[in-house]
Amino acid sequence: MSNHIRVEFVLGDITKQDTDAIVNAANSSLLGGGGVDGAIHRAGGPQILQECKEIRSRQGGCPTGQAVITSGGNLPARYVIHTVGPVWHGGGHGEAALLRESYLNCLRLAREKGIKSIAFPSISTGAYRYPVEQAASIAVAAVREFADNHDLPGQIRFVLFNDRHLAVYLAAWNKAAECQ
Ligand code: AR6
């Protein structure tokens, strides 16, 4: 693991984070929705949706596992990285690989943009019904893999919305550290 990276886990609201970028658990339309997506568009104002529409007109939305970037509008964060996690269909439909790609593509975009701090929500574990224990182990493995392969100075923050999710992510992180 790179010595330059700090990973932290907090209980909170993603829209309040003061990292350079926050990640949105979006859908392929990029036109907003409920959960994290709704909260980000409400707090960030119409600028974010406007930029999402421009991306849509260029590339026709965002496929599952991919990521796109907009400004942060009125949010404390300068950027929003929108990714589309997989819908859980029982685990036999490539969900794990797609969720891993969502995290890695957000980190790749952040690196390209020179973003030094990024906050992730627990992608796919709300409306998309991904079991949180499995999602957490994929999320922490993706972050560790990226940090191992890139010199990535900065901070990665997981922002969990309830105590149970926070405990699950911390346990996944500790387990991954033990296995190393
Ligand atoms: N800050 C941090 N985490 C939150 C917040 C918040 N403000 N609000 C909810 N969560 P979800 P998905 C947690 O449903 O499963 C949308 O309608 C929540 O407890 O936001 O990837 C999109 O438009 C859960 O653990 O995202 C898509 O259609 C996690 O964030 C679809 O939902 C993710 O829940 C995406 O579903």
TrEMBL record:
SUPFAM superfamilies on file: Macro domain-like
Classification via InterPro entries: Macro_dom, Macro_dom-like
Segments forming domain Macro: 1-177
PANTHER family: GANGLIOSIDE INDUCED DIFFERENTIATION ASSOCIATED PROTEIN 2-RELATED (PTHR11106), MACRO DOMAIN-CONTAINING PROTEIN (PTHR11106:SF27)
Record-given protein name: Putative phosphatase, C-terminal domain of histone macro H2A1 like protein
Natural source organism: Desulfoscipio gibsoniae DSM 7213
